[in-house]
Design brief:
59% helix; 4-stranded parallel sheet; single chain; 9% strand; elongated; 9 helices; alpha/beta; 255 residues; binds iron/sulfur cluster; Rossmann fold
């Protein structure tokens, strides 16, 4: 379960990484301007200033994006550019943050989990509520009991609802709320399901690695991520925190 304390420390980690990434990029841009400065003057007297203007614009853009994102994360209310901020986070800052985090010796799990936490907050602030038919619950294949022989990828209703694994409870949740439920074995199948169902929001359950890459791949379609539980190690007979999932579901469904 995601405790409030854990959530806050993940958010703090994310904020630290954004601040570090922003500083690093700005220092690099400043260096790019300073280093060729002396050489450029020999080419043309105005050349250093032209390069300075280009790099200065980039400097302001990175600073603007990072500050905007920090405000989005810290503000209790949605900001006008919430979707842009999510795009900047997903496409630009996550790869940069991952590099910086790795260089600082942070684990991928910590970096990705903090990214998922902040992504979820931005999605919650940006989105309203939808008809159940526009909501997709996307599950990983490893939730299915490893000894069950039913094929769920093409039709989740092949499940006999024996209750050995979480799929039976997920089907019950789907029927109760009228949303879509799909089980995917990988990114390609997940993409095909998304094209078929055309959801407005995806509530995805997976490990931190698959969730972080899924959120990136699916952008601009919003994904709310719920981490799975792995009592038997990765990818084997995993579990889903049903309370968290149902809470997310009721948040996005039109009353
Ligand atoms: S609930 Fe039973 S039948 Fe359904 S997928 Fe799990 S083990 Fe198989």
């Amino acid at each position: 379960m995601d405790t409030a304390e854990h959530g806050t420390s993940r958010k703090r980690l994310f904020i630290g990484l954004i601040a570090g990434t922003c500083t690093l990029v700005c220092v690099l841009l400043a260096l790019l301007w300073v280093i060729p400065y002396i050489g450029l003057r020999n080419i043309h007297p105005y050349a250093p200033w032209v390069l300075g203007a280009i790099l200065g614009t980039l400097f302001v853009l990175v600073l603007w994006a990072s500050l905007g994102l920090l405000l989005s994360v810290l503000s209790p209310r949605p900001l006008p550019l919430a979707q842009r901020m999510r795009g900047v986070t997903v496409k630009l800052l996550l790869p940069l943050m991952s590099l910086l985090g790795r260089a600082l010796g942070l684990s991928k799990e910590d970096i990705h989990t903090s990214f998922i936490k902040v992504n979820n907050e931005l999605v919650l602030r940006e989105l309203g509520r939808f008809d159940p038919s526009r909501i997709l619950l996307l599950m990983p294949h490893c939730l299915q009991n490893s000894r069950c022989e039913m094929r769920l990828t093409y039709d989740v209703d092949n499940c006999k609802r024996c209750g050995t694994c979480p799929i039976a409870a997920l089907l019950e949740l789907r029927d109760r709320y009228g949303v879509h439920l799909a089980v995917a074995t990988g990114g390609t199948i997940a993409r095909r399901i998304v094209v078929q169902k055309r959801p407005k929001v995806i509530i995805a359950v997976a490990c931190y690695r698959d969730l972080a890459s899924g959120i990136q791949d699916t952008y601009p379609l919003p994904v709310f991520g719920v981490l799975n539980e792995r009592p038997n190690g990765p990818c084997l007979d995993t579990l889903v925190p049903l309370d968290n999932l149902e809470a997310a579901l009721t948040r996005f469904i039109k009353p």
